[in-house]
Each structure stands twice: as structure tokens, then as C-alpha cells.
Amino acid sequence: MKHTSRCIFITLTLTLTLAGTATAQVPQGIPYQAVARNAQGQPLSSRSVKVRFSVLDSIAVGAAVYVESHTTTTNALGLFSLNVGMGTATTGTFSNINWGTNSKFLKVELDTNATGNSYVDLG
Questions:
Q1: Of the chain's two ends, which shows fewer C-beta atoms within 10 Å, N or C?
Q2: Distance of alpha carbon 65 from its chain centroid, rounded?
Q3: How much is the pTM?
Q4: What angle do CA 106, 111, 112 make, to 5 degrees?
């Protein structure tokens, strides 16, 4: 019984020590997946679309600390998958976002014409 208690104590101590030394890491990219639809709710299948991501600081309508765009093609179901942080940056640098201060919000906009001139805020 005494031996079992000692093993549990050592295991718990080691686990807490290792957990205490772990540090948070800045994300290299944030996976994002959605279905592009037209105004009637029908999926836009096999279509080129442009997506713009903005990381906003402090509040949902805050200043953009990072903005990027992606051009991609939807599949037969209108689905597309992207990684925020791996597009063409127009404002800021993804790796320089200070994730440790203030809340951050993701604004997502879609241009179904893929021109970059008619983005719609997806909310």
C-alpha cells in the first residue's frame, strides 16, 4: 500500500511539473471550412470564390490587426477549406499578432464573383 501511494505521488508530481513547464504557442494557421451559397441558399458548386479574413482586436468591430485574402474553388457541394494565416496578407503579419492581449475576432467575407470587389460579410 505504501509503495502504491509513493508511485501515485511521484507520477502526480511529475505530471504537474511537466504541465507547468508547457508554454503556449502562436498558431501557424487556423483551419476554416464553409459552404458557399447564393442568395437563395443553393450551394455554389465548382466555382471560383474569393475569401477575405480579418483578425479584429478587442471588439467585434475593432481595428483589423491582420487582413488576408484567398482565391479558391468550391467542390461539387460548394465546400471550401482554407487556413487563416496562409493567404495573401494585405494588412499586418499573422505571426506578429499578439494573441495574449485583448480578445480577437475573426471577420469573414466572401466574394462569389472572385473579383475582390464585391465582398459580403458572413457575420
A1: N
A2: 14
A3: 0.78
A4: 130
